[in-house]
Specification:
Order of helices and strands of chain A: HHEHHEHEHEHE
Strand order of the largest sheet of chain A: 1-2-4-3
Oligomer: homodimer
CATH architecture of chain A: 3-Layer(aba) Sandwich
Helix content of chain A: 40-55%
Number of domains of chain A: 1
Largest interface: A-B, 102 and 102 residues
Radius of gyration of chain A: 18 Å
CATH topology of chain A: NADH Oxidase
CATH superfamily of chain A: NADH Oxidase
Strand content of chain A: 5-15%
């Protein structure tokens, strides 16, 4: 028998899906603070916590971010559509539906009650995969655990959100809006609020496809 | 009043610390599979799940990885020590203690029951921060949420582990050991097992230091 506390934890974690349809209702300060606190619990290299979070609720600021987001969204749709031919028709329909819902989020971002903007200090990252002739990812090991903690803690409060990164392509504009230093970068934007739809279920590849034993197998 | 289920979730999440002192006792298959499954629940860009996980329990394979890890660990200690002068004496002592415990892990990695090696396909990542003259991190947005899910789900089962990235600096050697394709990269190694010490508490910067409202403030 599994511990009932473990089961509660797993039930919440297993129904944490990306929420893009968010009601305009306000998030109470105490609920929001609990969610923000959970993000600080995440690990980081050498416990340096090389990130900060700006919570945006001001309508004009949200609108300015929304405008950038909507412009970048179109480019991202092209990237996803380009990857469609290799997919089954059912998957293709799901991707197209996701693009539609994402487009609605892009155009309605100013109506979402909270935008959480994550910033990082690149000088505090120990990047071990920079020598392989491709874009490194390892700096993210000290950054995205905190974003994921925010999302799962939000789910535990009944809130929903989605990890987005497309505004990172507009960092100078984001800097002009939010006033952060030249030495800091943007690595995520999480729209956060009460879901219009339900939490869960998830659509994920089965464990047998994602996990191998002892060594690689095709 | 907060929902008791929310409180259970928060108590587990808030005591998920990096566990580096791990007992050699085996992890039962069913427990391990629940933890692995939780990693697949994480979000990724376009739900592409551009990663795979190799679970290593074979002693010879663990020893080969351990040898690489121990070599890279020394370089990482230098990086951390170089960042000490700006710290308080209390912080300095904590960093030195962490370095010692990390060194023990490095030399004892073959005794840890499970090594989870995370691999990714760079061609499936949409990297939006590659134009800023520094190492990008955004590819990690589709990768490290799954690693964090593994760690928090492990904690919920009483297991412990730690997100490490230093073997990423030895990717060709890791490829020779595990047999993954040239087109895939390593982005994390998580040693996993039953903790010798206790879960929690965490040492983190306070919320007021990590979170700002509406815009950057120094």
């Amino acid at each position: 028998m599994t511990d009932p506390r473990t089961e509660v934890f797993r039930e919440i974690l297993s129904t944490t899906r990306s929420i893009r349809r968010i009601a305009p209702d306000e998030v109470p300060d105490d609920v929001l603070d609990r969610v923000l606190e959970a993000s600080t619990w995440a690990p980081s290299g050498g416990n340096r916590q090389p990130w900060r979070l700006i919570v945006v609720r001001d309508r004009a600021t949200k609108q300015a971010i929304s405008d950038l987001y909507a412009e970048e969204w179109k480019k991202y749709v092209d990237f996803n559509i380009a990857r469609l031919p290799e997919r089954t028709p059912a998957t293709e329909q799901r991707v197209r539906d996701a693009m539609t819902i994402g487009g609605d989020l892009a155009s309605g971002l100013a109506d979402v009650p909270v935008l959480a903007v994550f910033l990082h200090d690149p000088s505090m990252l120990y990047v071990t995969d920079a020598g392989w002739g491709r874009h490194p990812v390892v700096g993210g090991a000290s950054l995205y655990p905190a974003v994921q903690n925010l999302l799962v803690a939000a789910r535990a409060e009944g809130l929903g959100g989605v990890l987005t990164t497309i505004v990172c392509a507009r960092e100078p504009d984001m800097r002009a809006i939010l006033g952060f230093p030249e030495s800091w970068g943007v690595h995520a934007l999480v729209p956060l609020g009460w879901p219009k739809g339900r939490h869960g279920p998830l659509r994920r590849a089965p464990l047998t496809e994602m996990v191998m034993r002892e060594r690689w197998r095709d």
